[in-house]
Amino acid sequence: MEKLTLIVPCYNEEEALPYFYEEVCRVVGELNYETELLFVNDGSKDNTLSVIKGFAEKDERVKYLSFSRNFGKEGAMYAGFCNASGDLVAVMDADMQDPPSLLPKMLELIESGEYDSVATRRVNRKGEPKIRSFFARMFYKLMGRISDADIVDGARDFRLMKRKMVDAIVSMGETNRFSKGIFGWIGFKTYWLEYENVERVAGETKWSFWKLFKYSLEGVTNFSDTPLKIASWSGIFFTFASVIAMFFVFIRALLFGDNVAGWPSTICIILFIGGIQLFCLGIMGQYISKIFRETKKRPIYIISESNKEDAK
Ligand code: UDP
Ligand code: MG
Predict the structure, then answer these.
(1) Which of 73, 159, 176, 274 gives 20 to 30 Å between its CA and that of 84?
(2) Ligand 1 pocket by C-beta < 6 Å: which residues?
(3) What pLDDT sits at residue 169?
């Protein structure tokens, strides 16, 4: 019998977990797969860990990894991939926004043998603040244009994939992680399953607008060097413009003599170019800080506790 691993990253999910566990057990019970429920406790400050331990006591399918602190969902998913023992692996949020009831359909699609992974995509963003949806859509449009990883609008991290895809993800041990980009970048044949947005069953979202904004910048700088190109192109543009301006000033001085008029425009130009320079330096800085973090090769997560003997 094939084995299915469900990776569930959890951060302060004590309220949602009981609902989630019940629903998953119901769905999985009807499947013809050996299952592993791999909960990753991402340094929760509430009782998430004891809730998970409670499940593990009664149910030997439940495995958990518990981090020494909060490392973020990206780290939690990576830990899950590194420790999953299934032939098929899926990542699933603990709040039921990734409906477990989609699993049978996803498995059916994988079993058809045509696809290496089944990914999910929300077709609407019902129940989400309008402004948040607007910026999210802009982000996906922009990413589609400037990056080589194909990132789909409304894509969730909820995905079912075959072992070979999991191994590819594990081999990408980069510190700066942006899973939506990584999934797209590694390729493989993916089926996109669409579904209507579901609101969180309990607890609240861990993503403030500001956090999402930073996350989207992370996506841009991890999977595209277009900002660097913009920086160099604006440099080239201003160099040309300044050469032309120099000619203009020089010839005007020859013809009409030198006068001090034009101070305001000079200041405007200096300020403008100064601003552009700082902007470009800032872009470089973003990439340099990525290199800095990457070269330190720090672990992506640290496990403090687990009921898997071979947790790595
Ligand atoms: N999560 C995590 N670490 C974090 C933040 C979130 O493991 O630092 C988990 C969280 O428990 C949930 C999933 O990632 O299972 C998605 O989080 P959330 O529902 O807050 O995000 P949203 O659905 O609002 O985008
Ligand atoms: Mg959620």
Answers:
(1) 176
(2) 9-11, 13, 42, 70, 72-73, 76, 93-95, 97, 205-207
(3) 94
Rounded to two decimals, the pTM is 0.81
- Nearest in space to 94 (alpha carbons), one of 51, 152, 32: 51
pLDDT of residue 4: 92
Q: What is the CA radius of gyration of the chain?
A: 25
Q: What are phi and psi of 173, to 5 degrees?
A: -90, 35
Using most ligand atoms within 8 A of CB, pick from 74, 95, 204 the residue to mutate for ligand 1. Answer: 95
Task: Report how far apart, in Å, the C-alpha atoms of 270 and of each of 140, 263, 274 are.
Answer: 35, 11, 6
d(CA 296, CA 27): 42
Buried-exposed string 36-62: b where 16+ CB fall within 10 A, e elsewhere: bbbbbbbbbeeebbebbbebbeeeebb
Stretch 37-65: mean pLDDT = 92
Give residue-wise pLDDT tens across range 215-272.
Answer: 888 888 888 888 888 888 888 888 888 888 888 888 888 888 777 777 777 887 887 8
